């Protein structure tokens, strides 16, 4: 697995201590595999314990969250905040409310967030948080009571100079509004204490669209390098949350043909291209039941089979749902069906075996989440800037800045590929570029 004794030791110690934290170990393993050759070249890294400091969060805050449902029953959930690295600035990363949330998932997300924020180039460290609570099926009042209880504890550990959370899965503008309201009650007004706020509450225009739009901007840059463009390309996009939906809108506006989409209920294929207006109608008025679409469009087919397991001819795949959604078998299926490009809209959506297959396939180019889905946190950083100077930029201003950031991230990956003869291995390049900057910061700051 690893050839360098120092790397082997660091990873072995993590396996011993955190054997049950599979997502965290997977993220660290993939990262160490990418940067191992740099460790070979710098013998001082072991003496300075660079890797040990890099893979370990600075702190993990765990707390219970008691809240009362509409029937008067008191419920207990667990809340977390993983503050991974403050080398570049305040901890920055979203809050996820989902029953799947645990320490392993949040450690992996905070670890990835650190390097993602380095690539963005704004003064933000890396963190992630959340709770094993799902807003699905809950009333607005229940969600509000949960958010207020959650923030009552979390507020002790965050502020605009230390840690600035945002939204993630299960935490949209409604939840951010409740969280920010409680933060103000507990600690007073700090405009930049949370990002992803509603525009009315000093949020940023373009924040809701940012991750999906940013994904497409990165894809644009990647395609332009191959003298290609999105127009007339057939796309498969998983996930119909904030990221997936906005990626669909931006891809279609650029002439792309989205032929298949999916959510937790199943997958939908329309060979003529998804009718976005009908899709949004189903999401908003038909309980996200994608089978309703095929009743309205006879040429379309709905299946409970994963979108990645179906035989769908396409050029581009954009996994925007969740971690490890694409397996080795599904990776082979994508390639067999003509997919040549993949950009990760979710964090670590391809498992290790799928990545191996992508890397071993000629003329297949893929981009990692820490580069391709950086748009959301990038605009969160821009929201912090607007709050600090008490101004609000127009949607077009924010969008132009986002596009510039995403193209710069691609150029960084491209330049790193050229410097280290990596070919088109943008995932390795993203890890190498961010690792080098983090090492420089560790050495600059000393024993922190």
From TrEMBL:
GO terms for molecular function: glutamate dehydrogenase (NADP+) activity; nucleotide binding. Signal peptide: none annotated. Substrate binds at residues 92, 113, 116, 167, 380. Residues 204-446 form the Glutamate/phenylalanine/leucine/valine/L-tryptophan dehydrogenase C-terminal domain. NAD(+) binds at residues 211, 242. PANTHER family: NADP-SPECIFIC GLUTAMATE DEHYDROGENASE 1-RELATED. Homohexamer. This is Glutamate dehydrogenase. It comes from Facklamia miroungae.
